[in-house]
Each structure stands twice: as structure tokens, then as C-alpha cells.
Specification:
This protein is α/β, with parallel strands linked by helices and 415 residues long. Helix content is 28%, strand content 27%.
């Protein structure tokens, strides 16, 4: 993989390290492998630094604790790269960590899957950075300006471990506004010499999907739901399936291949619904996909569910995979209320003995609270749920610290 001049123009990281001391609770957290140091945990600092400076954290006996990327613009002041043992952070270090991440994903090679998360941020040792692979295109998303001075070395290491034809850079919304640290980098720009197509086709468990890495949500597709989509496919034979918050129809395509007789995809975005139609068309070589009827409804999911209930429309399976409802602690109670409302609405159109599939991607809402909210709403609706399975993260979305866990999904039979 060859790169354009964008990376060559970036400034090198400062050679001067920042020395930090932190509170006793922060020391304990670092010893336990936590990847963040918050600004309020810092008790002593050698000098002010810029985003991307390397900060070395010492304990109260001046022994090495950790080294990480310093970010004065964030309450997460240091994103830890290595703890316990000192290390030189350079291209070799990046290459070893990237190789370890790639090795975790090796089992996917035997599943006819070319779309997956290659680097899952903190959980793979790269805090504030994720990489998704879509066939020959890599999409690298940054959440902090601290990575920018290291981006050239990082991308060179990435090319060695996981070569690809194209590399696209994505920046989260906050970082897009921090133009003083971007050095002409921009959201959606191509870092490789070749420009990728606007829509990228990739495989997932033998199915073909498209990703729009520039205009699509996340990096173009919700890769984290792969295992849950496969489970839906296993349970869909002969059923009518309603897929709410369908986005580009991932669950719908799996349901069709699994033998569903009818699939209805609902999403407020007409752009997403058009992608859902195309994703179904890419898989017409499967006779079951051809045989399944596919209806799309580009409207608000809450409104559609309420209208369907009033019309007494019923399904054998209802899939509810809403966006993140709780972005901070203050929103947790309203998020749980929204999940309960969706459960009630979903059960309102689910036949007795039908399958409820309900997911949450809100990290602020813990799994126990989420699952209990579903059962509570079912009880209030006079329905009983027999759990089939509770699922969480797939192997390409590993979790190595408590705050990193976000995805949970319930499969249940509604009696």
C-alpha cells in the first residue's frame, strides 16, 4: 500500500517526554490495565504538552507505570499505549501490536468474510483509533488529535501487517472541528494513492453487502452485529420478519437467505432503505433471497410500529436494533424508557410464540439493566419471554476493560 503526500506533511511527535504522577486510584487502575488517565487524576506534570506528545506516568516511588498519548484537549488526558513495562513507541511497536490484532481475526478467513473490524480501539491497544476492513479498503477512524503526529509511522506499520489497495481517513465530529491540529487532514480523505469507489462491496458469511465509508454511519456498516445477523438467519425459515431500525438491511438479507417468506425493513432514512434494496439485489444468487418478499418503509420506527399494531399486522420475528440512546449518564433513564417502549411496541406486532430480537449499543446502559427493562416491559404487556440466548461482542470487537463493553442482544420467544 502506497500513500499520498498527506502523511509526509504531518509533523513528527516531540522527542521530549512529559513526566506525570497521578492519584492512588489512578495508579491502581493503570496497574489493572485501564487505558485512560483523566485530567483530574494528574497530581504532577513536568511541562505542558501538545496532542500526540508521549506522556510517561510514574508511581509514587518514581517507578514506571505506563506510557501513552497526551491530549490536552480532552478530559481523557492520556490514552495508554503500554503499561507495566517500558517501551519505545515507534513503527516496530505499532507493527507488533497490529500483528497481534490481526491474529485475533484469523478465524474469520474461513467464513467467507472480508468485512470486519481490524483494530477495536483501546481493546486492541490503540486507544482512540479504530480500523475497519471492507475487502481491499481500510477505513481508519480517529477520535483524538493525539494520533496525528504518529499517523505516518502507524500507517507504514499497517501496510506491512494488513496491506490493502485503499486507505480512507475518518475523523469523529469533535476532531473535525479541531482544525489547528489536523495539518490539512480532513474527514473522508483518501490517504492511499488510489481513490476507492464510493460504494465498496464486501463479504460477510458468504453474503455480499455494500459499505459507504464516507456518507454511511460508523465506517459504512454495522460490522459488530455480524454474529447476531447470522443467528437471525438460523431462526428465520418460513417466517415473516420485521426489521426495525434496519439501516442498510443487514438483518433483512440474513433473514431472507435463512428462508424467511416475508421481510419488512423499516428505517427513517430513505438513503439507507435504498441501500437495503441493493444489498438484497447483490444476493439474488441465493434462491431463498429471490423467494422472499421484501418491503421497505422509510419512516420513523416508533410511528410504524404503532400503526402496524393498530392495523393488527403481525410477524413471526421482530428485530429491534436502535441507535445509541444514552451518550452520557444523564440519559440512562430516558434510554431505558425508550427500550421499554420499543419492547412494548415490538410485542404489539409479534405473534404468540414469535421471536423477539432486541439489541442495544449504548455503553452507558449496562447489560443487566437492559435485559431487565425488556422483561419488565413484556410483563407489563401481559407477555412472557422465554430467553433463547443473550449475546454480546464478536471476536473482532474484543473487550478488555469495563467501559469498552457496549453491545448486548436478547433472543427470546414471546409467549
Amino acid at each position: 500500500m502506497n500513500f499520498n503526500n498527506s502523511l509526509a506533511q504531518l509533523p513528527a511527535p516531540s522527542a521530549k517526554r512529559i513526566a506525570l504522577h497521578v492519584t492512588a486510584p489512578a495508579e491502581r487502575a493503570l496497574r489493572q490495565g485501564h487505558p485512560w488517565v483523566f485530567d483530574q487524576s494528574i497530581t504532577e506534570q513536568s511541562h505542558e504538552g501538545a496532542p500526540g506528545d508521549l506522556a510517561v506516568i510514574f508511581d509514587n516511588k518514581r517507578r514506571f507505570l505506563a506510557i501513552g498519548l497526551y491530549d490536552p484537549t480532552s478530559t481523557i488526558r492520556v490514552r495508554v499505549l503500554q503499561s507495566r513495562q517500558p517501551a519505545t513507541i515507534n513503527a516496530d511497536w505499532f507493527q507488533k501490536k497490529l500483528s497481534a490484532a490481526a491474529q485475533i481475526r484469523e478465524p474469520l478467513e474461513s467464513t467467507d468474510t472480508t468485512g470486519y473490524r481490524l483494530v477495536h480501539g483501546e481493546n486492541d491497544g490503540f486507544p482512540g483509533l479504530v480500523i475497519d476492513r471492507y475487502a481491499d479498503t481500510l477505513v481508519l477512524k480517529l477520535y483524538t488529535p493525539a494520533w496525528i503526529p504518529h499517523l505516518k509511522e502507524f500507517c507504514e506499520a499497517l501496510a506491512q501487517v494488513s496491506p490493502a489497495e485503499h486507505l480512507i481517513l475518518r475523523l469523529n465530529r469533535l476532531l473535525q472541528k479541531q482544525t489547528e491540529f489536523l495539518h490539512n487532514l480532513s474527514d473522508g480523505m483518501t490517504l492511499s494513492l488510489q481513490t476507492p469507489p464510493s460504494l465498496i462491496l464486501f463479504k460477510e458469511n458468504g453474503l455480499t453487502f455494500e459499505s459507504d465509508p464516507i456518507l454511511g454511519q460508523k465506517t459504512g456498516f454495522f460490522l459488530d452485529q455480524r454474529d447476531n445477523r447470522a443467528k437471525v438467519g438460523e431462526l428465520s425459515e418460513g417466517k415473516s420478519v420485521l426489521n426495525v431500525f434496519a439501516y442498510s438491511g443487514g438483518f433483512s438479507v440474513y433473514a431472507a437467505r435463512g428462508g424467511a417468506k416475508e421481510v419488512v425493513s423499516v428505517d427513517i432514512s430513505s438513503h439507507a432503505m435504498e441501500a437495503a434494496i441493493r444489498n438484497m439485489e447483490y444476493n439474488q444468487h441465493f434462491p431463498t433471497v429471490v423467494a422472499a418478499s421484501h418491503e421497505i418503509i422509510a419512516e420513523d420506527a416508533f410511528d410504524v410500529l404503532a400503526r402496524m399494531e393498530a392495523q393488527k399486522r403481525q410477524f413471526d420475528m421482530v428485530i429491534i436494533d436502535p441507535p445509541m440512546f444514552a451518550q452520557n449518564e444523564k440519559q440512562i433513564s430516558s434510554a431505558l424508557a425508550a427500550y421499554r417502549k420499543l419492547t412494548r411496541l415490538g410485542l404489539g406486532v409479534l405473534r404468540k410464540g414469535g421471536t423477539l430480537v432486541q439489541a442495544s449499543c449504548s455503553s452507558r446502559v449496562d447489560a443487566d439493566s437492559f435485559f431487565e427493562s425488556i422483561h419488565q416491559s413484556a410483563r407489563e404487556a401481559g407477555r412472557r419471554l422465554m430467553e433463547i440466548e443473550r449475546t454480546s461482542h464478536a471476536l473482532d470487537h474484543p473487550i478488555n476493560f469495563e467501559e469498552g463493553a457496549y453491545l448486548k442482544c436478547l433472543f427470546a420467544t414471546a409467549l
